[in-house]
Fold these 2 entries.
Entry 1:
Amino acid sequence: MNEAPFVIIGAGPAGLSAAEILLKSGAHVVLIDRSDRLGGQLTKQTHMFFGSEKQHASKRGIDILKLMVDALSGYDNLTVHKETTVVGMYKDKTLACLKGETYFKVHAQAIIVATGASEKALPFENNDLPGVYAAGAVQTLMNVYGVKPGNKVLMVGSGNIGLIVSYQLMQAGIEVVKLVEAADSISGYLVHASKIRRYGVPIEMNKSVKRAIGKTAVEAVELWELDEHWQGIPGTEEMIECDTICLAVGLAPLTELMQQIGVEITFIGELGGNVPRINPRFETSVPGVYACGDVAGIEEASSAMIAGKIAATHALLNAGIEVDKAESSLASWRQELQGLRNGPHGEKVRKGLEKLGVLS
Amino acid sequence: MIEKTGVAPSALVKKEFPEKIVLKKPKAVIECYKDIPCNPCETSCPFDAIKVPDDINHRPVIDFEKCTGCGICVYNCPGLAINVFQLKDDKVLMKIPYEFSPLPKIGKQVNVMNRAGEKVTEGVITKVQNTKKHNKTALIHIEIPSAFLYDAITIEVKPHEA
Amino acid sequence: MRITEHPILSFKGKKPVVFFYNGQQLVGKEGDTIASALHAAGVKMLSESIHLKRPRGFYCAIGNCASCNMVVNGEPNVRTCITPLEANMDVRMQEGKGRV
């Protein structure tokens, strides 16, 4: 069995930034990701990021990814396992890993879980037809593989993902016929909404999908208006021709691995659903197991990057490893994180963290 | 209304513009109508003309006396929410951010769109800047009739042939 | 269904990769997954639901949902959305739960 003081599961923004902090201390780090490339969802973010310079604002996600991966180069205390899925997690912090046909185990002193989230679906008639895709899937198809998901797309959901993926579809030369939102106002940043609207994409509130239509793939969609209880109103149906229905209806944290070792999980809707009960040090109810990034509550990538640094620093301190200027670094990262969560768009997250009892 | 459509009403838009006399010189107009955690407009401005006061979530404030209309904030704004406007005789000279392919050619007549995505007039491309520092957000210069100062926001983008 | 022009990304210069879908020869590109190559070739239906035989395509494209499982080189339940395309691969629609 391989021994490693620190194992990070997931090489997205949270995992990569945690890795950098751990590596700087000289500790041996094992970084595991199931994909064949590092970066998690950063690999398909072609837009400029928000935030401040400290979180690389104004740079594109794909370029931030390069910086984060470059920051890990030159460390001989790093072992990376790509295309490797952690299939089991045991109470003594042994991880069962599957890489192709090969199975191996790693025993860790501390584990940082940064597994991210999966996309939610939406119930409607024929929602299993080919052509009904999650927004992240559409992004992967376009921005990683250069393949068009379709030629005419209906976008469902006005959060930042729905707004940004609509824009990215247009950048790929694809028509976005409409964006609908079940709530009564746009939930993402207005600047993103204005950006697609001025290129002619209608944005409509209190509206959702009644059913998808098609034999072996989507050929059209029937929309309808929703009442204040989010129920469809008969008689308001509208038929739209499209070959893709793109669902951007939220994310759910991927907490399954932590559940295997009895990490206390609690349902907090504001954070995306089932989340680990973490303390302000990002440590779960199982000592030495930390959770950061979307798996600890759905937020923006910039927040995940800071969370990774904080979690990693505490993991080092708890292991008795000295960290240069730990106190001042932690204080400034906490301040950065608080800054990002301060505005009206951070309200939901603040509410969720309050319920979790970790609002700093 | 903007919270439901993404379209800023004209009264809101006009508040962000300086007096017309100020627009004899090019000035950045920032249309960032809601608090979001973001400040590259402030940090990219070489003339110290834009401030995001106190909290990174606050809306930016521009000092039109300091703004030279250089356009650096235009391609650094992640929300593509900044455009430069200048009044010259009976024309408006606009600098807009543009992230589509192909880029328009200089001298080309283009359809000019309002904030709701409707064609309001036609304009002529006068300059296209897309060097390394623009980092793939091109800065497009367009000349349009001055009557559309408060309406024009971008140029038409069409889907590629299927 | 390939992106021909893009303001931020470039997909040029990728070599063609020949493979087989239900015995029919198709051409994908270097760097593709099986599902992206099929989608680019216009094949959206990748599997059938086990009981009702309803058409299924991919949904998540990152290996979460199993909606894209196919038989690849005789092996069933291959998650085609995350499996890299290789030359001469034999890709087939899967019946039911698949037989090993």
Entry 2:
Amino acid sequence: MGSQDHETSNGFEFCKNYKGLHVLKLHDQIKELQTILRDKNTSRSDFKFYADRLIRLVIEDSLNQLPFTNCDVITPTGATYDGLKYKSGNCGVSIVRSGEAMEQGLRDCCRSIRIGKILVESDLDTHEAKVVYARFPEDISQRHVLLMYPIMSTGNTVSKAVNVLKEHGVKEECIVLSNLFCTPQAVQTVLDLYPKMKISTSEVHPVAPNHFGQKYFGTD
Amino acid sequence: MAAKINIIDPPSSASSDSDIGETNADFSEVFPDIEAEEEKSGDFYHTPASPITVPYCPRPPSTGSQKSPRSRRQRTTSLNQQTTKPVTDSIIRTQHRTIYTAGRPPWYNSVGQKVEPFVIGICGGSASGKTTVAEKIIESLGVPWVTLLSMDSFYKVLNEKQHNIADRNEYNFDHPDAFDFDLLITTLQRLKEGRKVEVPIYNFLTHARESKTKTMYGANVIIFEGILTFHNSKVNEMLDMKIFVDADPDVRLARRLRRDISQRGRDLDGVLKQYTSMVQPSFNHYILPLMSHADIIVPRGGENEVAIQLIVQHVQTQLQLRGLKLREELAQAYTVNKQFKMPRPDTVRLLPTTPQIRGLHTFIRNKDTPRDEFIFYSKRLIRLVIEYTLSLMSFVDRTIETPQGLHYHGKKMATSKLCGVSILRAGETMEQAVCDVCKDIRIGKILIQTNLQTGEPELYYLRLPKDIKDYKVILMDATVATGAAAMMAIRVLLDHDVLESNILIVSLLMAESGVQSIAYAFPEVQIVTTAIDPEINDKFYVLPGIGNFGDRYFGTEPSSENEL
């Protein structure tokens, strides 16, 4: 493992190579959250607490990728504020199980957003990822999709999920992946396959904290 | 909350008994280390909303004026109605003391520097009527914020031998050696600097200081009274006005006899013995010569209306000379600054304006946004600004081991001593977000309201964690217009010995002028906000702004918004 600076620059290098990759602006506060989540001595309650905080930040940041239009409003003081308005017609899709950890974060930002689900399981023999279950809003093909999956180490699961979304008519450029930790290989796999989609993550690091789902849901 | 023009009704002010009961309940959980007992007893010295911070200590039979506080207050009630003018409706009287419910006006100028309070020293023999004179001055002054410090709080702790002597009525409490002048000088000095002080509570039964202390604050006027007020030259230097209350020795003895016998149940011989052997000689030897230091000698004590009116007029003139028009001055200072195109100070931390932030602003600034949406979106924005604030803290490196068995070079916040302080009411809306991101964080509160007549902010209520000086403080207010309320809150924190560099003022929206004023007055305070608007209107609202944030959030806006 290289030094921290090296790891960080890894992430930025990737940003340059892949236009679709967006890494949350790293500051020490986010680094602290990541440190706590990676620490094996973190208690479950702390883990969940800090995971939820990081999720909220990633979700808020991912929403920046969604389309908006300009919108002027009148303030109570009678002045005009030159604001903007998000376009309606977005939806969330979580990849079962760990992606569901991010649903609450999305709900906290968008109260009535529709959320679809995909269950991807790896075949025990072939280790090939297979979509077992998928349930989406009817008009998903017309929508922008915020795909939620916190840990991406190979990118296979996400690739399958994106594939399913495309099969349902979602345009590639309308898919934004919300992610906490991913590896460079995963970014490579996904963005090489689907160059027009976007990834919003908090860290690109050679080692992904694969214990996330287990610890978050307490099944370890 | 600089943008607020609401004012609380006097009956519901922070000083009413029921209110204190409630706040006690609220805070016993948050601040378990604050003596709850003290609050239940109905003492609110530590709340600055009670401007007369008189330590309530039972006096010994052997010292000065001994009227029970109760009878004294009742007497002033009747006098007050004749003498005072419009102040009366802002006074609440309880069993033990008078409470002025009006808030504390600014005690510092537009660059955040404190204006020296006017310190009045009152000296005089035992039972000469010092306290009566002090009270009459306070009432006639009509200054809402006065601190009354009594020399009785500074009696020395007695050892066992002295204690026995005192029990036999042979300890001389009227001698200068009976007082702890060092502590007295430090306390008075700090009060004069406007800082918080812990005044000892002297227990006259044990002749020791109680473990608890009374918290007092500096004020616009400080009155220091006692039998040997002018004895120490250092104390004399701190006094802006020295009053000697003179009363006929016969009158004083008569008062003392009546008090000690009828109210303290003591026998005539004992009282007379003490008087002739100690009180009277001490008076002649130590107290009477102090008259030469006095600026004014008031014969006949509290009955001397003419003398008191003269004193009051002088103090009022002095206060006017030092007086302030803070908000106006702030606004003017900005106009001057604007001409010179002041660069934005580097202590300002503006959240990066992402589409997300602008989108949220669009919702909360729109006058037609219904309240549930207003609350929802402002909460989201608050969460973001609080997360951003935390990222401004200092961090240290920390290497941990991951479950994968690898080392990870991470970070850890350098301090665990973090607390939130909200400026009521609008700042309160931000408390939840702070609690959501910091486990078990302590939250203090400061209530500042704008006086409708003067347009100035006034401090009404204050509860802070006890050891706040060791904390990094996240000071929260939803909007900052002129910065007057924020500056008052910062000043309060500084008076509690919080380091200036440990304060972060966090808000959703600030006006350029408020930012400039705060940054100029407190260059080390970090200013965190999500948007800075260019202007303030003549009602001190930010333009384009979000209107009255507190009213919109809590749903208390007046029926016609335009009347704001």
